[in-house]
Queue: 2 jobs
Job 1
Amino acid sequence: MNKIYKIYQLLYKTYGPQGWWPFISSGYHVLDYSFPKNSDEIFEVCLGSILTQNTTFTSVVKSLNNLHVKAAINPDKIESMDIETLKIAIRPSGYHNQKARYILEFIKFYKSLNGAVPTRDELLHVVGIGPETADSILLYGYNQLQFKVDAYTKRVLIKLGLIDEKAKYHDIKLLMENSLKESVKDKKELHIVYQEFHALIVNHAKEFYSKKPYGVGCFLKDIIT
DNA sequence: AACCAGGACGTGA
DNA sequence: TCACGTCATGGT
C-alpha cells in the first residue's frame, strides 16, 4: 500500500467522513454521496468553487446566502441582476470586482453547455477558472474523477517529504491520482475517496498547517517514515 | 497589528 | 517558464 493512501486511511480513521460540500438548502450531507441532485445544485457548486478562491468557505456561505434570499443561485437570475447588486451580495468572500466578472464569464460558458458535462480543458479556458477551481467544479459538481489540489495539500506533502518544494499543481495532482487509483479499484469508491480526501486534508491542515512553523503536532509524520 | 484564507491573472525578465 | 504584485473582506 502506498503512502498517499495510508495518509488517507489515517485521516479518515481520525476525523471520519466530512460530507464536504455544503449546500445552501440542505447543508452538509455526511455519508450521502448522491449530490448534486439537480442542475440547481450543480450550478451552486460552480458558484461556490469560484467564490471560495483564496477564502474560507464560511465567507462563501454568507455570499451564497445573500444570493439565495434573492433566489439568485441561478444563471439567468444572476445575468439579469444589476452588477452592483451582485457585487454587494458576494462581498463577504472578497475580491468582489474580480469574482463578479468571473461569475458572469462562467455563466456564459455554463449556458453554452446546455446541461452537458464540461471538459477540464474547456473550463480552463474560462477567465477566472484555474486548475483548482476547475477540479473543484468537476469533482464536486459533476462527479468526475479529478483530484482537487490546494495550498494545504502541497504544504502537507512537502512537510512529509513526499514532494519537492517546487512541485507544481499538475505534479501533485498526478501523484495523488496515481497513488489512489493504484489502491482503490472501484470507480465509485475512488470518487468518494477523492472527495473525502481533499476535505480531510483541509480539516487536518486547518489545525496543524495554518500557522508557522507548519506541521507541529502533525501525527501523519509517524506513519510516513 | 500582522497574517492568512479550500487562487487566478497580468506583468516583466 | 517563473517569480512577483494585485485583487478585498473577515477572522484570529
Note: Chain A has a mean pLDDT of 95.
Job 2
Amino acid sequence: MEEPKLTTAEEKADQSLRAPGTKSEQTRQRILNAAAFVFSRKGFSRTRLSDIAKVANMKAGSLYYHFSSREELTAEVMSLGVNYTFRTVQNRLENLPPQTDSITRLRTAIETHLLCLIERSDYARANTKLSGQVPRNIQVRYDASEAEYGQIWRKLLRDAVADGSLRDDVNMSAIRMFILGAMSWSVEWFKPENGPAASVARDFSEMVLNGLRAQDR
Amino acid sequence: MEEPKLTTAEEKADQSLRAPGTKSEQTRQRILNAAAFVFSRKGFSRTRLSDIAKVANMKAGSLYYHFSSREELTAEVMSLGVNYTFRTVQNRLENLPPQTDSITRLRTAIETHLLCLIERSDYARANTKLSGQVPRNIQVRYDASEAEYGQIWRKLLRDAVADGSLRDDVNMSAIRMFILGAMSWSVEWFKPENGPAASVARDFSEMVLNGLRAQDR
DNA sequence: GTCTATAAACAGATAGAC
DNA sequence: GTCTATCTGTTTATAGAC
C-alpha cells in the first residue's frame, strides 16, 4: 500500500509506520494502512468501518480488538500523517549543506511536502483530506502539531524575505496559506496520469518562487 | 448572511439566490442560506439538519416541508454555489473590453473567483468545501458544471501560452489545478483578519502570473 | 484474534396535532 | 407552515462462540 523509498534518515523518523514483531502489531498496522488508504480517497463521511475492515481483510467488529473506537483509529491515522510530513520535510532541510541559500531551502520544503502528498504516503494524504472534516474532538488533538509545522514555513519565508531573496511587499501570511493550500488540494486531483510527481512538484515550486522573487529594480 | 454587492449584470445571473414574493419561497430561501452558512463552516459530516434548522430559526422536522431530503437540500446548495462562481467569473470576463490582453483576463478570472470565495458567497464556499465530502450520488450531479467551468480556465491558460505571455514549458494542466486548489483551500483558512480580501487576491494573482510569465531571453 | 449476532446510538425522515 | 413525537435505517460498538 505504501512504497516510501525513504532515505536512511527518514526511515528512522518513520519507524512508527513499520510493524514490530508480533502478529497483533502487524495486524494493527495493516488496519492503519487500510484506514489511511480509504480515508485518503473517500474522506471521513464516506468511510465506514466496514470499508476499512474489507481492505484489511477482516470484519468490522474485529477492528475493536485493536482500536477502541472509530475516533481512536481516525486520530491515529491523522497523527501519523502530520508527523510523517513534518519529519520528512524537517529532515530534508536539516540534511542540506549548512550554507544553502534561502530559496533552495524553500524549494526543498515545497517539493518534499508535495511529494509526501502526491507520491509517498496515504497517511499524509489522509491527514490532509480529513482536516476540516472530522469531529472537533479529533481535530483538536493534532492542531498543535499543525501549528508547529506551520512555524517551519513561517521561518522559511521570513528568512527569504529578510535576506532579500523574496519580495517584502506582500502579505506573506496569506501567501504561505496559498502555497500550503495548493499542495493540500492536490489530494483531490493528483493522479499518476498527471505526470511524473517530481516534475509536477518542480513546476509548482518554480511558479511559486519565480512569482515571489524580489525584482532588482 | 450574504452581502454580494453585485453589479447589474451579476444581479441578473444571481436571481436564483433571491426570494420571490411568497412567504414559503422566502422561508425556503432562508433555509438555503442557513445551509450554505453551516456547510461552508462545518463541512458535510459535522453538519446536522438540526444545525441548519437552528440557524434558520426552525425545528429540523420543518425542513421537510420545503425539501424532500437532506440530499436534496445539499445538492441545491452546491448547485447554487457552482453556478454563482461560474457566472460571476464568466460575466466579468465578458464585460472586459474586447482587446483585453490574456494576462489581464487571467488576472481578472483569478481575482474574481477568489473574491467569490473569500468575500462574497457562502454558497461558493459551501460548494468548495463540500466537494469531495458528499456522497457520490450528490457529487455526480454537479460534476458536469465543474467540468464546464474548468474549460474556462483551460482556455484562459491556453490562450496566454499561445500568445507568448506565459511560458510553454510547464505542465499547464497541473498548474491549473494548483491555482484552483490554492483558491479552494482558502475556504479552510481565510478570515477577515488575514487582510483586505482585494489585496489578498491581488497578492495571489501577482504571485501566480509573475511565476508563470514567459522570460524574454 | 477473528467471527457472528445483537445491542445501542444517532440522525434522517414521517405522521399528525395545532 | 411549523411543531412534537415517533419511526426507520444505518453504523458504531459490544458479547460471546470459536
Note: Chain B touches chain A through 43 residues (CB under 8 Å).
